[in-house]
């Protein structure tokens, strides 16, 4: 049995959550016990103190002095996009050829832009959160979701790229669910995306990750925000877009 990946981050979503999603989609699961009574997708070390972070820095584990960091296949990988690309390629979620890979990169990049508007949301003031909520919904419905709606309608496939499930599908579903947390009916004008959401959510590995008790993280709360600020010495105020 190969060692499971080990993730170094906070006990919350942030930039690590997409990595958790992709590992889950790939079905990276290690079970223990005679009857496999305990299964886990990956091991996690949660950063709770500045000392933990400093130890990683001093040990040379954080190439660019930042997390996420993932130990996988004997490597200590940093840079979220590099980690995701490696996992996608390793588990055949990166298309069948160079053209498909280019499309996946393009769609993932667009989805990243949308998710970036959400990433810092927990760190905003109450007033700025309301402004950012409206901004996120506006960008999702006017710039990003129409693109994916058209892609799905034009090629008539179940997935964004080719005829197989890929990283692009995982990333888009994650983004859809994040935006729905800001406005529950945000997909009301996008029938293709509604069907896509139902379809991808029913894939066994994804369905399991969406169930209670999985390693998926909840909506960031005040405790998460306070921990990140403390560990990273984030004493400045974040502003809305």
Describe the model:
By secondary structure, the chain is of the alpha+beta class. It is 52% helix and 9% strand. The strands form 2 sheets. A 4-stranded mixed sheet has the order 4-1-5-6, covered by helices on one side. Strand 2 (30-32) and strand 3 (38-40) form a beta hairpin. Helix 1 packs parallel to helix 3 (80-90) and helix 5 crosses helix 7 (191-201). The chain starts with 5 loop residues before the first strand and ends in a 9-residue tail after the last helix. 29% of the residues are buried.
Note poorly predicted spans.
32-38
- Give the helix level as a range of percent: 40-55%
Biggest sheet record: 4 strands, mixed
The span between the termini is 46 Å
Number of strands: 6
Oligomer description = single chain
Whole-angstrom Rg: 18 Å
Anisotropy-based shape: globular
Structural class: alpha+beta
Average predicted local confidence, pLDDT: 92
* Percent strand: 5-15%
- Order of strands across the biggest sheet? 4-1-5-6
H/E topology pattern = EHEEEHEEHHHHHHH
Q: Figure out the total of helices.
A: 9
